[in-house]
Specification:
Number of strands: 13
Structural class: alpha/beta
Order of helices and strands: EEHEHEHEHEHEEEEHEHHEE
Strand content: 15-25%
């Protein structure tokens, strides 16, 4: 089958990373680097292989290039999100803000612009995995904010008793806001504590995730705004009056 069949570097580490990219040189470099960092690596060279690998390999995180043969990265992401909430990191062209925003709107958890240092990708992978993995140790109490119920242990959210499907990053941001419901959370704090990086002026990741949360959660039962923007500061998850 050769390199571009599905291949796996079996390691002691249990974290499985799927690389979907048609640049064989880049994939070889990343696979070698990730292997040294203790990850188990699977690769696919086009969009259809990537979709199949998510179903067959059940990776813990997907690193997905936008520019792919057969199916582009956005189409792959749509198909993944139709049946899986696996964390997805998009690889985009540096300076192409449109690709980044579209990817986040379609459900990507993060993005890394090309070219990049492999150390940055490893940091992003570990950050999305921290957000996605089930947390125990006293954090399983249900959080209730108005008609919203958040179950941190199961990473589920319900609105009026009905489950709402969120990506891992969306849930983490909502949980972060819920733990300070009624108060204003600074955007810089969301970047630092949820996304695991510093806020920079051109990075609209948090804005896009908040926009997606507003769309999925809808307004308050009385029609009021559920997540308010406090201009120049951050965001507030509204706690309705009892």
């Amino acid at each position: 089958m050769g390199f571009w069949g599905f291949w796996t570097a079996t390691l002691k580490g249990v974290t499985r990373v799927l690389l979907v990219d048609d640049d064989a040189e880049l994939v070889n470099l990343l696979a070698e680097y990730l292997a040294r960092e203790g990850f188990q690596v699977t690769a696919a060279a086009d969009g259809e292989q990537g979709v199949a690998a998510v179903a067959d390999q059940a990776p813990d995180v997907v690193v997905l290039d936008v520019m792919l043969p057969v199916l582009n990265g956005f189409d792959v992401l749509r198909r993944i999100r139709a049946g899986s909430n696996v964390p997805v990191i998009m690889l985009t062209a540096r300076g192409d803000e449109v690709d980044r925003i579209v990817g986040l709107e379609l459900g990507a958890d993060d993005y890394v612009p090309k070219p990049f240092n492999p150390r940055e990708l490893v940091a992003r992978i570990r950050a999305v995995l921290r957000r996605a993995r089930m947390e125990d140790g006293g954090r399983t109490t249900v959080l209730v904010v108005g008609d919203l119920e958040l179950l941190p242990g199961a990473r589920e959210v319900r609105r009026g008793g009905e489950r709402v499907e969120l990506t891992g990053t969306e849930f983490s941001i909502l949980e972060y806001l819920a733990r300070s419901a009624g108060g204003v959370v600074r955007k810089e704090a969301i970047f630092r504590d949820v996304l695991g990086r510093r806020a920079v002026s051109y990075d609209r990741s948090v804005d896009v995730h908040i926009s997606s949360l507003r769309r999925k959660l809808g307004p308050l039962p009385d029609g009021g705004e559920r997540i308010k923007t406090v201009r120049g500061v951050g965001y507030q998850l509204v706690r309705p009056e009892p």
